């Protein structure tokens, strides 16, 4: 949804750990971050505005959350 990810990253990694959170689209960013931290305490969450350029490097320890100006998640949060 707006961000290209490798097919293997779209659902789960080799260990079966969650790598994307489509369910948080429409949530307030704080609630999304809490859910992601609950699912994957080993990763950090980075927040970006929908108008900001997203990082192009892949970081397996980072979840990218894209939100609008009301702090509502507008894209599937993904590892990257």
UniProtKB/TrEMBL annotation:
Biological processes, Gene Ontology terms: response to wounding
Tagged with keyword Endoplasmic reticulum: no
Keywords assigned: Protease inhibitor, Serine protease inhibitor
Family of this protein: Belongs to the protease inhibitor I13 (potato type I serine protease inhibitor) family.
One function term, GO molecular function aspect: serine-type endopeptidase inhibitor activity
Top-level division of the source organism's lineage: Eukaryota
Protein name: Chymotrypsin inhibitor
UniProt key word Transcription regulation: no
